[in-house]
Amino acid sequence: MLKHKKIVLFCVAVVLVLFTLTFFTAVHWTIFLLLFLVWLGLTAWGSFDIRLNYFTKAYSSKPNSTTKEIALTFDDGPHEMTEKVLDLLKKFNVKATFFCIGKQIENNPELFKRIISDGHLIGNHSYSHSENFGFFSSQKVVDEITKTNKLVEQLSGIKMNFFRPPFGVTNPMISKAVSETKHLVVGWNIRSLDTVYEDENTIFERVKNKIKPGGIILLHDTSQKSVNVLERLLLFLKSENYSIVAVDELLNLSAYEN
Prior knowledge:
258 residues; TIM Barrel; 10 helices; Polysaccharide deacetylase family protein; transmembrane helix
């Protein structure tokens, strides 16, 4: 059973117990309020931290790994900066995983094809990457995933199994949608925040300090600062004798349908 269902059942059980107690003794209303706030806090945390598997199973790392392997992932492309990212990856002979937005694929079809021809893995990152994605109905989420999958299949013949929700947000609607489309949700456990911080040193140090075997790093192929951080990161991982692999190899999962 998913974690949020367990929490809901637990909270309902506590409410019933408290309500029953009101027939025998005074139960202050603040106890009910506190219980509600705890539930609300857990729900919010579970929605925004994909690693918790709160609403749906997400593959965010290779737990308990002792092998110095790590996966590099890039979100929100293909973008004009993707070419620089691909050039760097080729220079270091590294394979990565790109979670692509449907609209961006339409805008940059040749770059998208280069990602594949260079031997990198691709995954679904929705069609629109709307800021309101977390409020979409399950059917609208299905439509976004399906539209991008069809677009990719038309351009490359590839049927993607991996899906990464925009912003890493999960909820019951997204959980229902991925269950219907039968996609595997891929998260991360090393978040660079390269779309939040402006200082390259801050971004690099944040990632470097979280490096450990079996990790999945989240970067974005959408800015020059991320490209600069990537070069430093590739040099650091090489110095630490890490093997950089695609997500399917790290997790031993099939990225594409046969």
